[in-house]
Design goal:
Length: 450
Amino acid sequence: MNKKIEGFTSYNKALAFLFANKHLQNRSRWQEMRTERMKFFLKQLGSPQDKLKVVHITGTAGKGSTSAMIANIACEAGYRVGLMTSPHLQTVRERILINNKKISEENFVRVMNRVKKAYDVVAQKGSYGAPDFQQIHVAATLWWFARKKVDVAVVEVGMGGYGDATNAVHPLIAIITNVGIDHVRSLGDTVEKVARVKAGIIKKNAIVITGVRQPRVEDIIARRAKHIGAKLITVKKAAEFKIGKVAPDFVVASIKTKYFDFKRIKIRLTGRYQVRNATIAVLTASVLRRRFGFKNISETSIREGLEDATIPGRFEIINKEPLVIMDSAHNEDKIKALVGLLAKLFSGKKLRVMMGFKKGKDYEVCLRNIARLHPAKLYLTDFTHRGIQSEDLKIVEPVAKEFYKDVELFTSEKQCLKKAMKETGEDEALIVTGSMYLVGSLRNRWDKLK
């Protein structure tokens, strides 16, 4: 008699548990990601979050870059570092990194088999309901990090702060990079409302580090920190930085804190805005070293960590002839940062822009800001990636024509990119932006597109 096999027997079947079940997809909303259900879920896994030293990071923009920098600094110092990010561009395994290496397909199946058992327990308890996509991802990642005994887990918030699945952790350090407007339906329509949600990651006895610049937002964070019993460190008061050369693939800056003084440091993630993120990373490295025993973190590991940190799809030069840059900017803060960087790097150079938008995103603000660069042509496209629906181009087109003289529409992102690259001259650059799902789709197909 054959032995009965329980659980997922392949990587594709484990993925199907996440992506093919509409119930899970439909429940993947911020309002339902409640901490109590998440804690009960994690309890079935042995509460892995309590076995980890966590750096918890939120922010409207910059949280991914800052997370990557901090993780890379700790890696360079010789520590075993878990990095949890979301969403992913090409494979869900990008979300679960240890020392910058994706979890293998074999280990992903192993993790999901363990998590599915816990999921079944929670789903059967009527008062909690079934865990959703993000909660499963977070639970799986925390369990794996605890299993692999990482020295530090750098955990990026999925959305907001309070109510997010990651908020079951109790961090050593809670970081709020900045606060702007995004995910209005879930987080609120003012920066004050968004700030209160993001400040929800602050926990008792944690160190809070923030790069926010709006006084009213800083006040909200300060009051939350004081009320909860956490120490606040602000970039404004604890550091100085000066931006030097900005190139397409790096930026040079000077960063000074109480314990580190870098006269010229090269940051691989380019853009003026990355210097503030790097400053937060330096402050975090200092706190980890001084307060939490990470003595191997040094000036050398910080310098090398910032020089090597990269994120796919973030101002990524994916082709040189013609020059093609992919950037997953999709909200006002990120688009404005992208426009500022492009204006500095390509002043006097003709630009072409290819854009697509996830349904429900504020495409008008993206179109309006990119138009400031006076691109020679706008290529608008539908796209298909991981079941995500792109915005109807019949709705986008009239808005686009308010800002651009030359607009062409495509139903296929593949055909759109081919046409745009063919029309991009030697002295021009093609910028692909508007949605990380568009960027992810094209990166998936890049080898076949060249």
